[in-house]
Protein backbone atom coordinates (compact mmCIF):
# COMPACT_ATOMS: atom_id res chain seq x y z
CA UNK A 1 0.00 0.00 0.00
CA UNK A 2 1.22 3.50 -0.86
CA UNK A 3 -0.06 6.50 1.08
CA UNK A 4 0.57 10.14 0.24
CA UNK A 5 0.24 12.82 2.92
CA UNK A 6 -0.25 16.19 1.23
CA UNK A 7 1.09 19.45 2.72
CA UNK A 8 2.00 18.05 6.11
CA UNK A 9 3.80 20.29 8.61
CA UNK A 10 6.45 18.15 10.31
CA UNK A 11 7.03 18.49 14.07
CA UNK A 12 10.16 16.46 14.85
CA UNK A 13 13.26 18.20 16.21
CA UNK A 14 15.41 15.24 15.07
CA UNK A 15 14.21 15.50 11.48
CA UNK A 16 15.91 17.60 8.78
CA UNK A 17 12.36 18.71 7.86
CA UNK A 18 11.39 20.00 11.31
CA UNK A 19 8.69 22.71 11.08
CA UNK A 20 8.64 22.47 7.28
CA UNK A 21 5.52 21.71 5.23
CA UNK A 22 6.11 18.80 2.85
CA UNK A 23 4.43 15.99 0.98
CA UNK A 24 5.26 12.61 2.51
CA UNK A 25 5.10 9.35 0.51
CA UNK A 26 4.84 6.10 2.46
CA UNK A 27 5.22 2.72 0.77
CA UNK A 28 4.63 -0.50 2.70
CA UNK A 29 5.13 1.29 6.00
CA UNK A 30 8.39 3.05 5.03
CA UNK A 31 8.79 6.77 4.26
CA UNK A 32 10.16 6.62 0.71
CA UNK A 33 10.04 10.28 -0.27
CA UNK A 34 9.65 13.71 1.33
CA UNK A 35 9.42 16.68 -1.01
CA UNK A 36 7.72 20.04 -1.51
CA UNK A 37 5.33 18.42 -3.97
CA UNK A 38 4.85 14.76 -4.86
CA UNK A 39 2.59 13.92 -7.79
CA UNK A 40 -0.26 11.61 -6.88
CA UNK A 41 -0.89 8.40 -8.81
CA UNK A 42 -4.15 6.54 -9.24
CA UNK A 43 -3.17 3.72 -6.89
CA UNK A 44 -2.12 6.05 -4.04
CA UNK A 45 -4.18 6.51 -0.91
CA UNK A 46 -4.11 10.32 -0.60
CA UNK A 47 -4.57 12.15 2.70
CA UNK A 48 -5.29 15.85 2.28
CA UNK A 49 -6.67 17.50 5.43
CA UNK A 50 -6.96 21.01 6.86
CA UNK A 51 -3.76 22.29 8.46
CA UNK A 52 -2.29 18.77 8.47
CA UNK A 53 0.51 18.26 11.01
CA UNK A 54 2.52 15.11 11.73
CA UNK A 55 4.93 14.20 14.51
CA UNK A 56 6.71 11.06 15.59
CA UNK A 57 4.13 8.72 17.10
CA UNK A 58 2.90 9.45 20.63
CA UNK A 59 3.46 6.91 23.39
CA UNK A 60 1.24 6.90 26.50
CA UNK A 61 3.04 5.35 29.48
CA UNK A 62 -0.03 4.77 31.68
CA UNK A 63 -3.14 3.28 30.09
CA UNK A 64 -5.59 0.88 31.71
CA UNK A 65 -7.78 -1.52 29.73
CA UNK A 66 -10.16 -3.89 31.46
CA UNK A 67 -9.11 -7.13 29.82
CA UNK A 68 -8.68 -9.65 31.36
CA UNK A 69 -11.36 -9.51 34.04
CA UNK A 70 -13.08 -6.17 33.43
CA UNK A 71 -14.01 -6.40 29.77
CA UNK A 72 -17.20 -4.39 30.41
CA UNK A 73 -14.92 -1.37 30.99
CA UNK A 74 -12.71 -1.85 27.93
CA UNK A 75 -11.29 -4.71 25.86
CA UNK A 76 -7.75 -4.70 24.47
CA UNK A 77 -9.08 -4.65 20.90
CA UNK A 78 -11.36 -1.66 21.40
CA UNK A 79 -8.88 0.11 23.67
CA UNK A 80 -6.20 0.02 20.97
CA UNK A 81 -8.67 1.49 18.46
CA UNK A 82 -9.44 4.30 20.95
CA UNK A 83 -5.69 4.93 21.32
CA UNK A 84 -5.16 5.02 17.54
CA UNK A 85 -8.02 7.45 16.94
CA UNK A 86 -6.65 9.59 19.78
CA UNK A 87 -3.26 9.89 18.05
CA UNK A 88 -1.26 7.27 19.98
CA UNK A 89 0.92 4.79 18.11
CA UNK A 90 1.95 3.01 21.33
CA UNK A 91 0.61 2.51 24.85
CA UNK A 92 2.04 0.96 28.00
CA UNK A 93 -0.76 -0.99 29.67
CA UNK A 94 -1.04 -1.08 33.44
CA UNK A 95 -1.30 -4.42 35.26
CA UNK A 96 -4.55 -3.59 37.12
CA UNK A 97 -6.53 -6.41 35.52
CA UNK A 98 -8.11 -9.49 37.08
CA UNK A 99 -5.92 -11.44 37.48
CA UNK A 100 -3.16 -8.83 37.60
CA UNK A 101 -0.21 -8.98 35.20
CA UNK A 102 2.35 -10.53 37.56
CA UNK A 103 3.81 -13.44 35.55
CA UNK A 104 5.13 -14.23 32.07
CA UNK A 105 1.91 -15.95 30.90
CA UNK A 106 -0.13 -12.85 31.71
CA UNK A 107 2.37 -10.64 29.85
CA UNK A 108 2.26 -12.93 26.82
CA UNK A 109 -1.56 -12.94 26.90
CA UNK A 110 -1.63 -9.14 26.49
CA UNK A 111 1.02 -9.11 23.75
CA UNK A 112 -0.83 -11.81 21.77
CA UNK A 113 -4.13 -9.95 22.16
CA UNK A 114 -2.56 -6.83 20.63
CA UNK A 115 -0.94 -8.54 17.66
CA UNK A 116 -1.68 -6.94 14.28
CA UNK A 117 -3.05 -3.59 15.47
CA UNK A 118 -1.86 -0.16 14.34
CA UNK A 119 -1.13 0.87 17.94
CA UNK A 120 1.60 -1.10 19.69
CA UNK A 121 0.92 -2.42 23.19
CA UNK A 122 3.68 -2.76 25.81
CA UNK A 123 2.73 -4.46 29.09
CA UNK A 124 3.81 -3.17 32.50
CA UNK A 125 4.17 -6.00 35.00
CA UNK A 126 3.42 -5.66 38.69
CA UNK A 127 6.36 -5.07 41.00
CA UNK A 128 4.88 -7.37 43.65
CA UNK A 129 2.98 -10.65 43.52
CA UNK A 130 -0.76 -10.08 42.98
CA UNK A 131 0.02 -6.37 43.46
CA UNK A 132 -0.25 -6.90 47.22
CA UNK A 133 3.04 -5.20 48.15
CA UNK A 134 4.37 -8.20 50.09
CA UNK A 135 6.70 -10.22 47.84
CA UNK A 136 8.46 -9.30 44.62
CA UNK A 137 6.91 -10.62 41.40
CA UNK A 138 8.78 -12.57 38.69
CA UNK A 139 10.37 -9.46 37.21
CA UNK A 140 13.08 -11.03 35.05
CA UNK A 141 10.72 -13.63 33.56
CA UNK A 142 8.20 -10.92 32.73
CA UNK A 143 10.83 -8.75 31.07
CA UNK A 144 11.97 -11.71 28.96
CA UNK A 145 8.36 -12.08 27.82
CA UNK A 146 7.99 -8.41 26.88
CA UNK A 147 7.21 -6.35 29.99
CA UNK A 148 8.90 -2.93 29.77
CA UNK A 149 8.66 -1.87 33.44
CA UNK A 150 7.35 -2.99 36.82
CA UNK A 151 4.96 -1.18 39.14
CA UNK A 152 1.79 -1.74 41.16
CA UNK A 153 -0.65 0.63 39.47
CA UNK A 154 -1.82 3.37 41.86
CA UNK A 155 -0.63 1.30 44.82
CA UNK A 156 2.38 2.52 46.81
CA UNK A 157 5.12 0.14 47.95
CA UNK A 158 4.86 0.57 51.73
CA UNK A 159 7.70 -1.84 52.53
CA UNK A 160 10.94 0.17 52.24
CA UNK A 161 13.12 -2.93 52.02
CA UNK A 162 11.02 -4.44 49.23
CA UNK A 163 11.60 -1.41 47.01
CA UNK A 164 15.27 -1.38 47.97
CA UNK A 165 15.65 -5.04 46.92
CA UNK A 166 13.71 -4.40 43.70
CA UNK A 167 15.99 -1.49 42.76
CA UNK A 168 19.02 -3.69 43.37
CA UNK A 169 17.61 -6.74 41.58
CA UNK A 170 16.46 -4.93 38.43
CA UNK A 171 20.02 -3.71 37.81
CA UNK A 172 20.94 -7.26 36.79
CA UNK A 173 18.86 -6.96 33.62
CA UNK A 174 18.54 -3.17 33.20
CA UNK A 175 14.93 -3.24 34.43
CA UNK A 176 12.88 -0.17 35.28
CA UNK A 177 11.14 -0.08 38.65
CA UNK A 178 8.13 2.19 39.22
CA UNK A 179 6.91 3.50 42.57
CA UNK A 180 3.55 5.21 42.98
CA UNK A 181 4.04 8.41 45.02
CA UNK A 182 1.66 8.09 47.94
CA UNK A 183 2.12 7.39 51.63
CA UNK A 184 -1.11 5.68 52.69
CA UNK A 185 -0.51 6.34 56.39
CA UNK A 186 -0.50 10.09 55.74
CA UNK A 187 -3.21 10.00 53.06
CA UNK A 188 -5.51 7.99 55.31
CA UNK A 189 -9.09 7.96 54.04
CA UNK A 190 -8.65 11.18 52.07
CA UNK A 191 -10.43 11.48 48.73
CA UNK A 192 -9.46 14.99 47.51
CA UNK A 193 -6.59 17.44 47.91
CA UNK A 194 -6.26 18.72 51.47
CA UNK A 195 -6.85 22.46 51.42
CA UNK A 196 -9.48 25.18 51.29
CA UNK A 197 -11.82 23.22 49.02
CA UNK A 198 -11.74 19.99 51.03
CA UNK A 199 -12.76 22.01 54.09
CA UNK A 200 -15.54 23.87 52.23
CA UNK A 201 -16.90 20.63 50.76
CA UNK A 202 -16.60 18.57 53.92
CA UNK A 203 -14.47 15.93 52.16
CA UNK A 204 -11.48 14.20 53.73
CA UNK A 205 -8.23 15.58 52.35
CA UNK A 206 -5.03 13.98 51.05
CA UNK A 207 -2.18 16.31 52.01
CA UNK A 208 0.58 17.05 49.51
CA UNK A 209 2.88 15.64 52.20
CA UNK A 210 1.57 12.12 51.45
CA UNK A 211 3.09 12.34 47.96
CA UNK A 212 6.23 14.25 48.88
CA UNK A 213 7.17 12.00 51.79
CA UNK A 214 6.96 8.93 49.55
CA UNK A 215 9.02 10.57 46.80
CA UNK A 216 11.65 11.60 49.36
CA UNK A 217 11.87 8.01 50.59
CA UNK A 218 12.08 6.61 47.07
CA UNK A 219 14.87 9.01 46.15
CA UNK A 220 16.84 8.15 49.32
CA UNK A 221 16.53 4.46 48.42
CA UNK A 222 17.59 5.12 44.83
CA UNK A 223 20.63 7.08 46.02
CA UNK A 224 21.58 4.10 48.19
CA UNK A 225 20.96 1.32 45.65
CA UNK A 226 21.58 2.83 42.25
CA UNK A 227 19.38 1.45 39.48
CA UNK A 228 16.57 3.06 37.52
CA UNK A 229 13.39 4.50 39.00
CA UNK A 230 10.30 5.97 37.39
CA UNK A 231 7.79 7.89 39.51
CA UNK A 232 4.41 8.07 37.75
CA UNK A 233 1.87 10.91 37.94
CA UNK A 234 3.36 13.42 40.35
CA UNK A 235 0.99 16.25 41.30
CA UNK A 236 2.53 18.79 43.71
CA UNK A 237 4.88 21.75 43.50
CA UNK A 238 7.32 20.31 46.03
CA UNK A 239 7.41 16.95 44.19
CA UNK A 240 8.76 18.78 41.15
CA UNK A 241 11.52 20.36 43.26
CA UNK A 242 12.44 17.04 44.90
CA UNK A 243 12.92 15.38 41.52
CA UNK A 244 14.79 18.37 40.15
CA UNK A 245 17.25 18.18 43.08
CA UNK A 246 17.64 14.40 42.62
CA UNK A 247 18.50 14.82 38.94
CA UNK A 248 21.12 17.42 39.85
CA UNK A 249 22.67 14.77 42.11
CA UNK A 250 22.88 12.44 39.12
CA UNK A 251 20.22 9.95 40.22
CA UNK A 252 18.67 7.91 37.42
CA UNK A 253 15.07 8.99 38.02
CA UNK A 254 12.27 10.03 35.69
CA UNK A 255 8.69 11.07 36.36
CA UNK A 256 5.41 11.68 34.58
CA UNK A 257 2.40 13.90 35.12
CA UNK A 258 -1.23 13.14 34.24
CA UNK A 259 -2.92 15.43 31.71
CA UNK A 260 -5.75 16.37 34.10
CA UNK A 261 -3.30 17.60 36.77
CA UNK A 262 -2.00 20.15 34.23
CA UNK A 263 -5.42 21.54 33.31
CA UNK A 264 -7.79 21.25 36.27
CA UNK A 265 -7.62 22.15 39.96
CA UNK A 266 -9.65 21.15 43.01
CA UNK A 267 -11.89 24.17 42.33
CA UNK A 268 -13.67 21.74 39.96
CA UNK A 269 -15.04 19.60 42.78
CA UNK A 270 -17.99 21.71 43.89
CA UNK A 271 -20.46 19.61 41.86
CA UNK A 272 -19.33 16.40 43.64
CA UNK A 273 -19.03 14.68 40.24
CA UNK A 274 -17.49 11.21 40.70
CA UNK A 275 -15.75 11.53 37.31
CA UNK A 276 -13.47 14.11 38.96
CA UNK A 277 -12.26 11.68 41.63
CA UNK A 278 -8.74 10.74 40.54
CA UNK A 279 -5.56 9.45 42.17
CA UNK A 280 -3.48 11.52 42.79
CA UNK A 281 -6.25 14.09 43.33
CA UNK A 282 -6.70 17.40 41.54
CA UNK A 283 -4.47 19.86 43.39
CA UNK A 284 -4.29 23.66 43.78
CA UNK A 285 -3.41 26.23 41.10
CA UNK A 286 0.17 26.75 42.38
CA UNK A 287 0.75 23.00 41.91
CA UNK A 288 -0.63 23.06 38.35
CA UNK A 289 1.62 26.00 37.46
CA UNK A 290 4.67 24.24 38.93
CA UNK A 291 3.92 21.08 36.94
CA UNK A 292 3.70 23.01 33.67
CA UNK A 293 6.96 24.80 34.49
CA UNK A 294 8.55 21.43 35.34
CA UNK A 295 7.63 20.12 31.89
CA UNK A 296 9.08 23.16 30.15
CA UNK A 297 12.40 23.03 32.03
CA UNK A 298 12.80 19.26 31.62
CA UNK A 299 12.33 18.24 35.26
CA UNK A 300 9.20 16.27 34.36
CA UNK A 301 10.06 13.90 31.56
CA UNK A 302 6.71 12.79 30.18
CA UNK A 303 2.96 13.25 30.14
CA UNK A 304 0.35 10.51 30.36
CA UNK A 305 -3.41 10.50 29.88
CA UNK A 306 -3.56 8.04 32.82
CA UNK A 307 -6.53 6.60 30.92
CA UNK A 308 -8.58 4.49 33.33
CA UNK A 309 -12.04 3.32 32.18
CA UNK A 310 -14.51 2.79 35.04
CA UNK A 311 -18.06 1.48 34.57
CA UNK A 312 -20.99 3.73 35.48
CA UNK A 313 -21.92 1.64 38.54
CA UNK A 314 -18.67 2.66 40.20
CA UNK A 315 -18.84 6.33 39.21
CA UNK A 316 -22.48 7.40 39.59
CA UNK A 317 -22.32 7.04 43.36
CA UNK A 318 -21.53 9.27 46.34
CA UNK A 319 -18.23 11.07 45.65
CA UNK A 320 -16.31 9.41 48.50
CA UNK A 321 -17.43 5.95 47.32
CA UNK A 322 -16.61 6.48 43.63
CA UNK A 323 -13.66 4.59 42.15
CA UNK A 324 -10.63 6.69 41.23
CA UNK A 325 -9.93 7.30 37.58
CA UNK A 326 -10.83 9.09 34.37
CA UNK A 327 -10.59 8.15 30.73
CA UNK A 328 -8.16 10.45 28.97
CA UNK A 329 -6.92 9.23 25.58
CA UNK A 330 -9.51 11.06 23.47
CA UNK A 331 -9.03 14.39 25.24
CA UNK A 332 -5.25 14.27 25.83
CA UNK A 333 -4.07 16.28 22.83
CA UNK A 334 -6.86 18.87 23.06
CA UNK A 335 -5.96 19.54 26.68
CA UNK A 336 -2.18 19.67 26.20
CA UNK A 337 -2.53 21.86 23.12
CA UNK A 338 -4.38 24.35 25.34
CA UNK A 339 -1.53 24.73 27.84
CA UNK A 340 1.75 23.76 26.10
CA UNK A 341 3.61 24.42 22.84
CA UNK A 342 3.78 21.69 20.20
CA UNK A 343 7.46 20.88 20.65
CA UNK A 344 7.06 20.30 24.40
CA UNK A 345 4.00 18.13 23.75
CA UNK A 346 5.82 15.95 21.22
CA UNK A 347 8.90 15.70 23.40
CA UNK A 348 6.88 14.61 26.43
CA UNK A 349 4.48 12.33 24.53
CA UNK A 350 7.02 10.73 22.21
CA UNK A 351 10.77 11.24 22.53
CA UNK A 352 11.28 11.16 26.31
CA UNK A 353 8.95 8.27 27.18
CA UNK A 354 10.25 6.11 24.33
CA UNK A 355 13.82 6.65 25.43
CA UNK A 356 13.07 5.84 29.08
CA UNK A 357 10.98 2.74 28.43
CA UNK A 358 13.30 1.38 25.73
CA UNK A 359 10.87 1.80 22.83
CA UNK A 360 12.29 2.18 19.32
CA UNK A 361 12.28 5.80 18.18
CA UNK A 362 11.80 6.73 14.56
CA UNK A 363 12.64 10.00 12.81
CA UNK A 364 10.55 11.62 10.08
CA UNK A 365 12.94 11.27 7.16
CA UNK A 366 13.33 9.12 4.07
CA UNK A 367 13.98 5.36 4.48
CA UNK A 368 12.65 5.36 8.05
CA UNK A 369 9.64 3.45 9.34
CA UNK A 370 6.50 5.59 9.26
CA UNK A 371 5.41 6.01 12.87
CA UNK A 372 3.25 9.12 12.82
CA UNK A 373 0.65 10.95 14.87
CA UNK A 374 -1.56 13.07 12.61
CA UNK A 375 -3.33 16.19 13.87
CA UNK A 376 -4.42 19.80 13.44
CA UNK A 377 -3.31 22.11 16.28
CA UNK A 378 -5.81 24.87 15.40
CA UNK A 379 -9.46 25.38 16.25
CA UNK A 380 -11.34 24.76 19.49
CA UNK A 381 -14.34 22.69 20.55
CA UNK A 382 -16.28 21.69 23.65
CA UNK A 383 -15.49 18.13 24.69
CA UNK A 384 -18.73 16.16 24.98
CA UNK A 385 -19.87 12.56 25.18
CA UNK A 386 -19.96 12.53 21.36
CA UNK A 387 -16.16 12.84 21.41
CA UNK A 388 -15.78 9.75 23.60
CA UNK A 389 -14.84 6.56 21.77
CA UNK A 390 -14.12 4.50 24.91
CA UNK A 391 -16.61 1.93 26.17
CA UNK A 392 -16.63 3.67 29.56
CA UNK A 393 -17.68 7.32 29.59
CA UNK A 394 -16.02 8.54 32.82
CA UNK A 395 -14.28 11.64 31.47
CA UNK A 396 -13.13 14.43 33.76
CA UNK A 397 -13.10 16.79 30.74
CA UNK A 398 -16.78 16.78 29.78
CA UNK A 399 -17.96 20.29 28.83
CA UNK A 400 -14.40 21.68 28.81
CA UNK A 401 -13.16 23.75 25.87
CA UNK A 402 -10.18 22.05 24.20
CA UNK A 403 -7.95 23.09 21.33
CA UNK A 404 -7.00 21.25 18.15
CA UNK A 405 -8.09 18.01 16.50
CA UNK A 406 -6.50 14.58 16.21
CA UNK A 407 -6.90 13.04 12.75
CA UNK A 408 -5.38 9.64 13.63
CA UNK A 409 -2.14 7.74 13.15
CA UNK A 410 -0.01 5.93 10.60
CA UNK A 411 1.87 2.97 12.10
CA UNK A 412 2.57 -0.68 11.31
CA UNK A 413 1.66 0.00 7.67
CA UNK A 414 -1.85 1.04 8.71
CA UNK A 415 -3.64 4.38 8.43
CA UNK A 416 -6.29 4.80 11.14
CA UNK A 417 -8.40 7.95 10.94
CA UNK A 418 -10.73 9.47 13.51
CA UNK A 419 -13.92 9.69 11.48
Task: Give a written overview of the molecule.
This protein is α/β, with parallel strands linked by helices and 419 residues long. The chain has 2 domains: 2-53 and 366-417, Roll (Urease, subunit C, domain 1); 58-357, Alpha-Beta Barrel (TIM Barrel). It has 12 helices and 18 strands. The strands form 4 sheets. Strands 1, 2, 3, 4, 5, 16, 17 and 18 form an 8-stranded mixed β-sheet that branches. A 4-stranded parallel β-sheet has the order 6-7-8-9. The chain has a 4-stranded parallel β-sheet with strand order 10-13-14-15. Helix 2 (104-113) links the parallel strand 7 and strand 8. Helix 8 (237-248) runs parallel beside helix 10.
Relevant terms:
alpha/beta; Urease, subunit C, domain 1; eight-stranded mixed beta sheet; TIM Barrel; 29% helix; 12 helices
How would you briefly describe this protein structure?
The protein is of the alpha/beta class. It has helices at about 75-85, 105-115, 140-145, 160-170, 185, 195-200, 210-225, 235-250, 260-265, 285-295, 330-340, 340-355, and strands spanning about 1-10, 20-25, 30-35, 45, 55, 60-65, 90-95, 120-125, 150, 175-180, 190-195, 205, 230, 255-260, 300-305, 370-380, 400-410, 415.
Amino acid sequence: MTTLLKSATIIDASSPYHQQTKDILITDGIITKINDTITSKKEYQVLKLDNLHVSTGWFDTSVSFGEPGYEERETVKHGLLVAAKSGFTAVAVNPNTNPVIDNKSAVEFLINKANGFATNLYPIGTLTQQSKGVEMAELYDMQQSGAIAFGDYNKPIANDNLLKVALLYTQNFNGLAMSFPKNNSIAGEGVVNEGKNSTLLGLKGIPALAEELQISRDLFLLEYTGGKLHIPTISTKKSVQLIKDAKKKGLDVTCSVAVHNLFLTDDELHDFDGNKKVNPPLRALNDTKALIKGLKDGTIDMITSDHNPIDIEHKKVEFSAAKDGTIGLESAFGVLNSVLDLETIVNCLSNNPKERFGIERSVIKENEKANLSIFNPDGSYTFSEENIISTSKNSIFLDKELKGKVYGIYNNNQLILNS
